[in-house]
User: What shape does this take?
Amino acid sequence: MINTSDILETIHMIDDENLDIRTITMGISLLDCIDPDITRACEKVYEKITRCARDLVKTGEDIEREYGIPIINKRISVTPIAIISAACDASPVAFAQTLDRAAQAVGVNFIGGYSALVQKGFSAGDERLIRSIPEAMAITERVCSSVNLGSTKTGINLDACRLMGQIIREASEKTMDNSCFGAAKIVVFCNAPEDNPFMAGAFHGVGEPDCILNVGVSGPGVVRSAVAKCPPDASISEIADVIKKTAFKITRMGQLVGTVASERLGIPFGIVDLSLAPTPAVGDSVAHILEEIGLEKCGTHGTTAALALLNDAVKKGGVMASSRVGGLSGAFIPVSEDAGMIDAARCGSLNIEKLEAMTAVCSVGLDMIVIPGDTPADTIAAIIADEAAIGMVNSKTTAVRVIPAIGRKIGDELEFGGLFGSGPVMGINYRSSSRFIQRGGQIPAPLQSLKN
Amino acid sequence: MRAVITVIGKDTVGILAKVSQICFEFNANIIDVTQTVMEDLFVMVMLADISKLSESFTTFSDSLDQLGEAQNLKIRAMHEDLFNSMHKI
Assistant: This one.
């Protein structure tokens, strides 16, 4: 018989500390749907997605019921559409509409993969797809878009940075009546993982199998509570150990759900993303873990060090709990989706420069940050370039998901609702980066790329 | 397949009998029972074999939910594997 206190601990984690599986994401390859006739290609895409993911939501719900674990999102990622649409001589927006319809048909709330991989330059179809992103984001509800424009191996495509600065602004402008939500569905990556289960940056890499299931776990509330139970004089190494043990338990749950779900769906199990993914709900915040470790407010001096420890301990605990680890794996710091981050940003403790430093030691990047509506496109491009440089040099994934709040100024708030939360408009550096961005070209790959 | 049935709340007369009755109705074989009082809460943990359940697990679980609501207790049935994977290496 299992120990009663272990049983109660699990139930307490689920009931009171927001322990959940954040997402089970089915990756579907669309390579066999390529067709020069766009109507025919879209038909094939719709057929394949609705066939593969027919039972995804039901399977997820059955597992929730049997195991008593909430599975918050069931989602789909597909092959970057720029590859699929390259053969068609027409606007790829039709693909976005098809993805949206397919997602609605199978009941998933988001589908990722309206994407292009341009880290070393644009191939046929890439630029056309990128230029269509604002329209695609405005007219669809569930489609997410991502662009990988840099990597440690290739360097950074500065032309793509410049273009994405404009695209993000345009996406915000086109959806200004809807809290500029278009920009919240666009992620720009350096070193994008091909098996990421989390939106908005999920896409199904070309080296992946035909259909696969990836799992993203969550549990900032559980980690915070475990840290809170440590004695006040516990050393930082003891704190790291506690986080490691907690991450192990959380990840084991993800591993179990992934194994069961992939068996039932008859597809291979991909990876568990060892993540701490916050939500705006009380008690589900990564910032609050940092504060529990001993910071008065997230963003103050010491935040980067505490986050580095947290991120590392989550990985160390998680990696033994899972047979295959992948995706982004680490703590997420999306500002608008984390009650503690929102508070810290509102009171001025957390600013964009500190967030940038934090992204050097955690799993993603500048995520869900609302910037002033009058931010020039070139400044957004420079924010992207900075972040990509951190990823490139440190051989890690970095990303940018900023939302220019059209018509709003510093201190105003943008309300997205649901898991996306709300965010105060944060200040940026107003000095121009235009001359740098307008140079274009490719930032060469760093020495770190020469490992062979 | 085995399920862990947990009952948490204020101790009441006949609670063990009522939960056992539902297990009997659904043909779930009770293997082990422990009960204890933790921080003023009555906690009962049952391990039941549900491989020969007469109806779906969801219906079984719903019946336990209803009993819990009627008795002002939290009763839930969860697959044993969850606890094994989280707490055993």
